[in-house]
Phospholipid-transporting ATPase
Amino acid sequence: MSEEGFENDESDYQTLPRARVNHRQRGLGWFLLGGWKVLCGSCCDCLAHICRRKKELKARTVWLGCPEKCEEKYPKNAIKNQKYNIFTFVPGVLYQQFKFFLNLYFLVVACSQFVPSLKIGYLYTYWAPLGFVLAVTMVREAVDEVRRYQRDKEMNSQLYSKLTVRGKVQVKSSDIQVGDLIIVDKNQRIPADMIFLRTSEKNGACFIRTDQLDGETDWKLKVAVGCTQRLPADLFSITAYVYAQKPQLDIHSFEGNFTREDTDPQIHESLSIENTLWASTVVASGTVIGVVIYTGKETRSVLNTSYAKNKVGLLDLELNRLTKALFLAQVVLSIVMVAVQGFVGPWFRNLFRFVVLFSYIIPISLRVNLDMGKSAYGWMIMKDENIPGTVVRTSTIPEELGRLVYLLTDKTGTLTQNEMVFKRLHLGTVSYGTDTMDEIQSHIIQSYAQSPPSPKVRKSVSSRIHEAVKAIALCHNVTPVYESHVNGETESAEADQDYSDDNRTYQASSPDEVELVRWTQSVGLTLVNRDLNSLQLKTPSGQILSFHILQIFPFTSESKRMGIIVREESTGDITFYMKGADVAMASIVQYNDWLEEECGNMAREGLRTLVVAKKCLSEEQYQDFENRYNQAKLSIHDRGLKVAAVVESLEREMELLCLTGVEDQLQADVRPTLELLRNAGIKIWMLTGDKLETATCIAKSSHLVSRSQDIHVFRPVSNRGEAHLELNAFRRKHDCALVISGDSLEVCLRYYEHEFVELACQCPAVVCCRCSPTQKAQIVTLLQQHTANRTCAIGDGGNDVSMIQAADCGIGIEGKEGKQASLAADFSITQFKHIGRLLMVHGRNSYKRSAALGQFVMHRGMIISTMQAVFSSVFYFASVPLYQGFLMVGYATIYTMFPVFSLVLDQDVKPEMALLYPELYKDLTKGRSLSFKTFLIWVLISVYQGGILMYGALVLFESEFVHVVAISFTALILTELLMVALTIRTWHWLMVVAEFFSLGCYLASLAFLNEYFDLSFITTWPFLWKVSAITLVSCLPLYIIKYLKRKFSPPSYSKLSS
């Protein structure tokens, strides 16, 4: 469609995706080809919806310590990850098994053997294999379910202290209710969403770790409600309530009010995100008391997790389609047999007997072989020494690793180590790198040793360095934390001698800030203490400089900068410091000619840049600002806008001090791994909760976006019109990477879902920043629906779990952010670089082997059904089995099972080759190893061989019918063993053992099969030459064809391995 069309047909676009769905005709064909499953599924969903109708989420008033005053009934605070309960386990597992056509078909055939007139052979030949398949599945599911139950039980039975009128009582995590006052100690998990009322820390604030909620490893500062923190007595001495908004998905926002009723006038305090303690976070400092506002299903962490679905591999779905085709062929064949008979007598019964006779066309051993194969691949992956520590948690989808087209990856902790290193300080005329930091140190020592410098017209380099380092040491949100090693408790050091460097750690909500403060310490200016109102620095000579914090303007994603106003206590000077992204700061600082150019240079090196500036304020200027600022903060309408306007009045003509560059170190071998995946035809999307600038920076440094490629940054859009214009602008770009924020993505998907996905899929790389956990999962689902390609998600934090569970194949990395992602994933690895070998080698082998195995097992069934058809047509279309009882069971098991199963050891190229030529992986995504074309070739082979074996035996048998069975069965076993040898591409010693072992078993069992074979005839020459002749005719042409094909039209991999 042209651009004009895109602009004009705006109304049509909205209805496009829906319209396409509605065009499908729903006739009888639709019903037979899976419509029944859709209808049954929608009926079940409807019933389930009625049974557990979702309660509407409402805002609430929570009285402190009085759960009984709650007007509503709130959910139980229990964690539940189980799929089934005691009643639904058996029906649930059986439904999961019998929704596959293959298994359902066998159930019907096995049940038909209870009807005397339809009975063919022995019951055990039908029920034993089916029972075995079901037993294996049940045991596997039961073990998984028990493990989940134990994990949940452990979490739910953690004990917490609850405050009551009579004092403290111990309570289980699952028994906590809305309104309870809960005490949480240091390093304890917060059990439910709470409002932070008091803390043991003197400054009325505490740190929490949120890695399991948002994937960020840095600590967040939380502030207790002022009214309750200042209380001299206990919390039951007051009457108060919290008004909280209804439960929401957004973990970064909260609105509520705290009201104390027993005073005159009533005390009101507004509550925001900094007063909340969300469930699944961990207290990092002090002991806290909170009142529970949301429990169980209504907590932010549970609202943001999606439930695991049962994943089914693409290969299983393809085989399921082929079995349907085989079933159709079987029914047609049976109808032909009855029709040739002339529909005489009870033809309907005969038809069913033929269907049962030919039931071997669809072998039940297909499921057994494939499931055992999957377990073997899992074992091989876990035993691979090149990727140590890899765990396969879902054994049903190893073939998916060989079919991936989209890889969606997290950034922090997956591509990067989340460890910052200070690399560069630029002052405009001079730049300092890691090798010249000692110069800065000597300048700092020198400037603090001198008496205060007299104001000169032009500043010396030394004084400019001093100003810059001081600004970096003051402008931040970092708090030093001291661990006293006496009793293991965290104590805030009061006296000067406690400020020793050994037991000090820095905490902040951004690892960049911590690294900047660590760097100022390394050059001699150390942050030693900080509370809500003041901050102390230590100079190289050991002198303490005290500063009073007057105002702090925190960093937001809109403003992209943070500021602080401090008063130096010794001189009384008031200074406004500010640091932020270059885009935000360029218009604030005084005119200069170097900032833009240097920021570009640093970004190209993959550094995260911050611009630092300052402004000196007089006492009058500050007082005027403070009055306007406080007035703006009290306004009810447009508070945010008014506050921003007042702050902006200060942000003018600021003095530019320096530019800093910090590097977020990449994981080992990230660049070559991403290069490998790109060459393999896999499109990589990076989904991160981080800022746009940081995400773009990492995309460049990790070579996710190659150097020559343009990057299109999608402008923030908030409505349909803006989204429309921006999509048009993006449409005009060619071959460029896309960077988009979560909010803009939401708007685009609301109005132009189909168009956006279509455009994004053409990009070589896509970066989505500021993504919530649910958004990550939504993007995965979108790709699955719109492209019908296989997706893989990889991450390492609790915030990646939804995405990992939604993808066709989820990979978790055991990292610093805990094990939550690796436990929820299908495959767990220890390093990002292992994904290359996991996909190129193990994914390739699993898919190729399963395709060969599946088709071979089908061939084994089709060949015997062809022989049965020839046999019945020769003997007046009688519905009598050719091979009875044990011969049939033995054929599918002991005589051919080991050689056929040994195909799981086959490989077409060596692992080194697969890694050296990742382009080979592209072929797999086309699904050519298992398609209707390859399947038809196998059908033709089966018909040819079955016909030769049966007619050969009939032509060569002398007078007795018993010889037909002996000759044809022996030739059949030999043909199967030779066909396995023909299919194998790389021999393994176990394959040779399996071939000879199976042959040995057959020869040994001839002695016991006298009810089927005439032993005196088997040992004669005629028997041997007849069997050899038939086998030669059935196999030799195929060997010749294979040789010619290899010579004149070799596959791509054989060119490499030759």
